[in-house]
Structures are given as structure tokens and as C-alpha cells.
Specification:
single chain, alpha+beta, Signal recognition particle alu RNA binding heterodimer, srp9/1, 4 domains, 9 helices, about 10% strand, K/Na/Ca-exchanger, calcium, potassium:sodium antiporter activity, calcium channel activity, NaCa_Exmemb
């Protein structure tokens, strides 16, 4: 939904809205891949440091589409990989071959695990892949498939954590939960918030961080609990709640701290010192709770 112009054609795509989440200019030198799709749609993949931005361009006129592709070929010095979109496993294989042949060191290192995941997704969801413009009406089935694979990958992560604990009993499950599992699930959200903050979208960055955790508490925890409770006929489920009370206190304290920072001058703004302080609070929490799980000191709250 961002309007652009063809000014400064030799540099890249310039957007009319300076506050665009994409930034004001997407440069040709950062363009690594061009996917030619149906109905005059082009997907341009830009990579800059840790950022990966997909720009979808609709060019209905075939002559203009050819002109745009020629312009990309000219000013990007032929670096991007231009290809058609393939929602099947064949497309996943072609991407692997390209990465191993023409990709950089980082792309080659990630090509194999990326292919394994891409193969599974394309093998099971090619018929509802909404990136294919002809299948966008099938988004409910695509969403259901995505939730299915999210559940599978989450189960795999938990099984890996259990196997780590089984083979290394000195590492408690609680410690793996607050480190490996927590960081593994939150790291993508953290990266997304950093990118949005860099693009002058602080509200979106904060909403992403808070919204993802609200979903974790009210959906990711509650829904499996409800499903399991239904399976056993609604009977009580005895649990070891050691540490839960202290965790709730930590969450309440963090929430109060964030609200205080938001209401303190400058109003509704989180400064760099505030960010450092919140990081220190997290490190303190990690050290204290890790020490409790290893039995180095007694719990702060019993």
C-alpha cells in the first residue's frame, strides 16, 4: 500500500511517504531476488545487513513490466536472481541449487536447513499457498496449515529441550525453559521490533513485543490446557507450581516499570537509558531464576 516513484532510477525505488516502514529508498545494490508471479505481480527481495524486505509490485501492463525488469537488470548489474514463482517442492530445490551455486557464505550455511523446512511446507501446502495470486482466496486453509506446522515445530523444540535434559541431567527443564525455549520463541519478535524501531515505527515495535506476549499468555498457554482438560473429561490437573508465583511477581513488576517509564517525561517515549535498564532487569531475572533452578540459593518467593 505504499506509493513509489521512479525518481533516482539508477539508485533504487524511492517512496513518496518518508515514514514508510520500508524506508524512503530501497537500493538496487540490496536487491538479491526477483520473483515473477501471475497477474503482473513482481516480488522484490531486498537484503541489507540483518534486514530482509519483500516489496510486492503490481504492473498490469506487460510492456511496463518488461521495462521494469530491464531497469532492474541494468542498474543492479545483473546481480538479482530473476525467476518465476513455484509453490511446489521443485521451487524449493531450485532455491537450494541457487544458494549453493551463487549465494554468499551465510546463504550457503543456511541453505540446507532452510530447504528442509521449505520442502515440508511446500510438499503439504502448495495447494493453498497464498503467495500464488490465484490462490489468495484459500487463506483460511493456509492459516490452518500454518498453525498445524507451528504446533509441530513447537513440539520438536520441546522434545529437543527434553532430550538435552535427558542426556545432560545437570541442566534442569526449568533452566532450559527460561533460556533455550524462551529465547528461541522470542528472538524473532525481538528482531522484528528492532527493525520496526529502526524504520521509525516505535508504536509498531512496542505493540509487536507486548502483543506477542499477550497471545502467549491468553492463547498459547490457555488453548492447549483447555484441549487437554477436555480430553481427560474436565478432571483437575495436579501441577507442581513451584516458581509460578515468583514469575507472576516478576511480570507484574516489569509491567509497572514499563508503565512508569511511559508516563514519565518524555511522555509516551522509551529512551536509550530506559532500554539499558530494562535489559539489566532481564539479566538480573535470568541470573536469579537460573540460580534458583540449580539450587544455588533459595527462591525469593516461596
Amino acid at each position: 500500500g505504499v506509493k513509489g516513484s521512479y525518481g533516482r532510477q539508477s539508485i533504487g525505488f524511492q517512496f513518496d511517504n518518508p515514514d514508510s516502514m520500508l524506508g524512503q529508498v530501497l537500493k538496487y545494490k540490496d536487491l538479491k531476488e526477483v520473483v515473477v508471479m501471475d497477474m503482473g505481480v513482481l516480488e522484490l527481495e531486498f537484503y541489507h545487513r540483518l534486514q530482509h524486505i519483500t516489496l510486492r509490485v503490481t504492473v498490469g501492463d506487460s510492456d511496463q513490466r518488461v521495462q521494469l525488469l530491464e531497469m532492474i537488470e541494468k542498474y543492479s548489474l545483473g546481480r538479482p536472481w530473476v525467476h518465476g514463482y513455484d509453490a511446489t517442492v521443485v521451487g524449493a530445490w531450485k532455491h537450494l541449487v541457487h544458494a549453493m551455486k551463487d549465494g554468499g557464505t551465510t546463504m550457503k550455511l543456511t541453505a540446507i536447513p532452510e530447504f528442509c523446512i521449505d520442502f515440508l511446507l511446500k510438499a503439504t501446502m502448495f495447494a493453498v499457498d497464498v503467495k500464488d495470486t490465484r490462490k489468495q482466496g484459500r487463506w483460511p486453509l493456509c492459516f490452518a496449515g500454518a498453525m498445524f506446522w507451528l504446533a509441530i515445530f513447537s513440539w520438536c523444540m520441546l522434545e529437543i529441550a527434553n532430550q538435552i535434559h535427558y542426556n545432560i541431567p545437570a541442566l534442569p527443564n526449568a533452566f532450559l525453559g527460561i533460556t533455550v525455549c524462551a529465547i528461541g520463541t522470542s528472538f524473532p519478535n525481538a528482531v522484528a521490533s528492532v527493525l520496526m524501531a529502526q524504520q521509525n515505527k516505535p508504536a509498531a515495535a512496542i505493540a509487536n513485543a507486548l502483543g506477542s506476549n499477550v497471545q502467549n499468555v491468553f492463547l498459547a498457554m490457555a488453548l492447549p490446557w483447555v484441549i487437554y482438560s477436555i480430553q481427560i473429561g474436565g478432571k483437575p490437573i495436579p501441577q507442581n507450581v513451584a516458581g509460578i508465583t515468583e514469575g507472576v511477581y516478576w511480570m507484574m513488576g516489569t509491567l509497572i516499570l514499563v508503565v512508569f517509564f511511559v508516563l514519565a517525561p518524555p511522555l509516551c517515549a522509551l529512551t536509550k537509558p530506559t532500554g539499558y535498564l530494562l535489559i539489566i532487569v532481564y539479566v538480573v531475572y535470568l541470573v536469579l531464576t537460573s540460580g534458583e533452578t540449580f539450587g544455588w540459593w533459595p527462591p525469593l518467593v516461596k
